Amino acid sequence: MMEPMRQGELNQTGDREPPTPFGNSGGTALGEERSAPLFAANEAEDLRSKWEKIQTNFVDEPRNAVKEADALVDTAIKRLSETFAGERGKLEHEWDRRDNVSTEDLRQAFRHYRAFFDRLLSV
Fold it and tell me: In sequence order, which residues have a C-beta less than 8 Å from that of residue 88 and are 6 or more positions away?
């Protein structure tokens, strides 16, 4: 059983805050990174608009509506995959500079990976 942290102690990733189920509290930059939307606002709105149109068409053409829903879900999944691949590339760039990386840089990269991982699991 792990002992609770005392105020001012560093946790495993060097954070001074007491741990929460997701690491830092939601008010930190890391917490904001975790809650960042998966799609840009205009992109999410476009996907919702397409979904509503498909849903409206279900009554008259259910088979076609299901086919279109499948295609829209496929589009959303591909977009998420592209987004996460891009984010992973940025993370890798943070620390993959050969031997020219400080421990602090690695700690920050690790925190970003943790936030990224939590976002992946929230999908």
Answer: 116
